[in-house]
Amino acid sequence: MDFNEISFRVRYAETDQMGIVYYGNYAQYLEMGRVEWLRSLGVSYKWMEEKGVMLPVISLKIDYKSSARYDDLITVRTRLKKTPTVRIEFDYTILNEIQEILVEANTVLVFMDSHKKKPIKCPDYILERLH
Fold first, then answer.
1. I need a labelling partner for 31 at 20 to 30 A (CA). Which of 3, 49, 56, 98 fits?
2. Distance between CA 9 and CA 44 in Å, rounded?
């Protein structure tokens, strides 16, 4: 799979007094992208958590290029950077309606056993769906 996209409108509550998206909200947008990327593989976060697997973020990098504003239709494009091991890494591009790049970002997450609180390798059910 090359990438997955999710599009939505910026809500008023996500903006500051100038009508511009508050910078901290972009991390939530990236999470929406990851969740939908996994869902496109047929895997949900909820299902993984029920199986004892958590995916905490251990690295977040965001490069802000331009601002999203209230009521803009934005698209989060999520791409897997490489085959996951104990870590899974994503690159993101957030675009506006005219395909202008607003944000470029990267996250690294680690697969964790939720009971033992220890890192584990990427579950086979994800690896199988990638091939």
1. 98
2. 23
